[in-house]
Amino acid sequence: MLTSIRGLVAASLFAATALATATPALADDEPASEITVTGNVALTTDYRFRGVSLSAGDPAIQGGITVTHASGFYVGTWSSSIASSDVYGGQELDLFGGWSGEVASGLTVDAGLLYYVYPGGHVGDANYFEPYASIAGAVGPAKVKVGVAYAWDQNSLGDDDNLYVYSNLDVGIPNTPLTVSAHLGYTDGVLAPAILAGGTDDSGIDWSIGASATLFGPLSLGVSYIGVDGPSVDGLTDDAVVATLTASF
């Protein structure tokens, strides 16, 4: 009887030890997810698109979500409130997909297709497609990005096209949560700032300089001074100081 009890205890201890040993192994063997979901919501004092206000100089609510695969392919959507009109309604909804990845040490390429949708518009055709591509890397303490976007001639663009090239520069201030940024863009086509302001010049430059900082947790605050060349129209193409509060997840 004693032998049986000892055998039972030994068997129980063996089983418990095996279970305790096996459980972490199973957890360690679980493959990491190949899908990453990121997003953000923001409140901005003025929705400026390539220097031009799409919210008539008023505040706008924005937000988006992106689903990325480990291979670098991604899809997502982003939306913002805009100045209400019969053609565009009161909302911009962007749908996009593409691929981003490191092609050389410290050098990242991003390329895809973006579709601008204006679901509230009920007069004419406002939606249009725009392929894009960019390359980014580090130059000393600075992050540099150069990109291009091209919208071919489409009905919503008056059967005309538009080319946009730009460069961004971001420099983090050591030992602070502050990042200083600068942007310079050039438009050639139907979406040039002067044309949107009622002029005839189908080319133009937009620029900005500003800073952003992490406040706490997922919250960050950015402030930029934004300008465009050409006619200055209040609430459209006039220079403006824009502040944006963003929560990222």
UniProtKB/TrEMBL annotation:
Protein name: TorF family putative porin
InterPro entries xrefs: CHP02001
Signal peptide: 1-27
Superkingdom as given in the UniProt entry: Bacteria
Keywords from the UniProt entry: Signal
